[in-house]
Amino acid sequence: MVNDRELYDFSKPLTIKFGIYLANASILKNPGETKTSGLRFEDFFDNRDFSDMKIIVQGTSFHAHKIILSNASSVFAAMFRHWMTETQQGSVHIEDMTSEAAKEMLRFIYTGKIEFTETCKEELLAAAKKYGIWRLKFKCASYLCKTIKIDNAVKYLELADLYRIEQLKKLAIKFVVDNGKKMLDEPDFNSLVALSADVVTDLLRTLIPAVK
């Protein structure tokens, strides 16, 4: 009778091959190409597949996943870790944000992309600060730096001061100085005096050499 030791040479390494079968292939971008496709966070954006919670804003519900939100936000991670009452119920209600901004915040968490609108830029900066999503702050700052205009330069300067975005502050100050005459008639121009002392000082330091 042949024993197991005679069937296999134990002096050689043992290699075990196995495969993983996904029952719900619809969550893949290309279900027919499972060998090259991989599961990505963007496949789960507002997707009920494997969702274990909801974000509720202004009566609108978004399907979400605790592990993905926790990976993006230390605040969400702490919320789920300490098992707050609302997370036990499988939902988080956000009262200080519009549903439009909440959707874009979640879109960024899952895909790294944002569809910016005029109304949600400031809300997204506030959300980035509140939830500790620093990559979102950088994304918003990058967008603002590229879109400074006559009618928003003062507002952007206020945002740069409020959220401590140094690069945006420098660009906005330079824009205000370079376009001072054109901006005199802008409704926000007079609000420059209400900015913090640091911003006003930086503005004057840039303005005085330009006048000479």
UniProtKB/TrEMBL annotation:
InterPro entries in the cross-refs: BTB/POZ_dom, SKP1/BTB/POZ_sf
Q: Which domain of life is it from?
A: Eukaryota
Q: Sorted alphabetically, which PROSITE patterns does this protein's record hold?
A: BTB
Domain BTB: from-to ranges: 51-118
CDD domains listed in its UniProt record: BACK
The name this protein carries in UniProt is BTB domain-containing protein
